[in-house]
Amino acid sequence: MKAVYFDGELRVCERPKPLPGEGEVLVKVSAAGICNTDLEIIGGYIPDFKGILGHEFFGYIEESDDTFLRGKRVTAEINIPCLTCDMCMNGGKKHCKERKALGIRNRDGAMAEYITVPIGNIHLIPESVSDKQAVFIEPLAAALEVTRFIPTDKEKSVLIIGDGKLALLITMAVSAITENVTVVGKYPDKLAFLNYLPLTATLLKSFRKEFFDVVIEASGSPSGFELALSCVKPGGICVLKSTYKDNVSFNPSNIVRNEFKIVGSRCGDFKRAIDFILLQNPPLESLISGEFAIKDAIEAFRYASEARVLKVVLSMKDFR
């Protein structure tokens, strides 16, 4: 099968078709999204990574011991925990020290014609969710995870730093529960995707610093982290969604003086993401900047790395 493989060099090559193990299903992949994490991996974010990339995907189950699942359109959670360690036994499966992660850690990903995943990771995709919406389920789940830090008091203010794929999804998620939202980004055309929402969108060069109850850093840039720390109200909270290849240096004195919290936020609930699509019908399709066949994956990655580009999708068939 064709696959997008990285071992220090990114290439499209032939790999053996995977065989499902006990408790696993074989999925024929329909489409896979290129995520910032994928771009960071090929840039050296995970120095020892070797394998097939990709963790945002959907497809159709081709092989399963459960006959009901055969032929079903599905996506799958990316973390595969050991299920036996202390973290797993105490509700912390996504922080399992022995976990594998599709296309990220010790497990081949979805930028291939086929992928195997544990049956417990599978989520059925309702018919009313389009293919173009389905490819966003994983990043939307991660975006929705930040909403647990948003106060129920609608007077509380929220600042979102960034205008990339994840930042825009986070804005959609946060705007569903509060209208007191400000977004700061670099590109007018990206911020324009948010015109349908009741919020304030500001270009970075025009942004005047002020204090917010919650600041969400999703720019992917160390400078965004610096800006975030300078905008948190005393007693507020800073939520970090960005990952950085290099170390970030900062003086923590401001955190001490103003007694605010910094929390990290990673993966989210797939079912919640699917329900959000069904209830809110967000215009996810508008975030797709380009579609490429898997044979053109190198070109797709090059395009996805351009600053003004949003979601790039590798497709094995035409979207509907």
Summarize it.
The chain folds into 2 domains: 2-125 and 283-315, Quinone Oxidoreductase, Chain A, domain 1 (Alpha-Beta Complex), CATH 3.90.180; 142-264, NAD(P)-binding Rossmann-like Domain (Rossmann fold, 3-Layer(aba) Sandwich), CATH 3.40.50.720.
Question: Which features characterize this protein?
Answer:
22% helix; alpha/beta; 320 residues; single chain; 2 domains; 10 helices; Quinone Oxidoreductase, Chain A, domain 1; 6-stranded parallel sheet; Rossmann fold
What does this structure look like?
The structure is a single chain. The chain has 320 residues and is an alpha/beta fold. The protein has two domains: 2-125 and 283-315, Medium-chain alcohol dehydrogenases, catalytic domain (Quinone Oxidoreductase, Chain A, domain 1, Alpha-Beta Complex), CATH 3.90.180; 142-264, Rossmann fold (3-Layer(aba) Sandwich). Helix content is 22%, strand content 28%. It contains ten helices and 18 strands. The strands form four sheets. Strands 3, 5, 6, 9, 10, 17 and 18 form a seven-stranded mixed β-sheet that branches. Helix 4 (137-144) crosses helix 5 (165-175) and helix 4 (137-144) crosses helix 9 (270-280). The longest helix has 11 residues, at 165-175. The protein is globular. The mean pLDDT is 94.
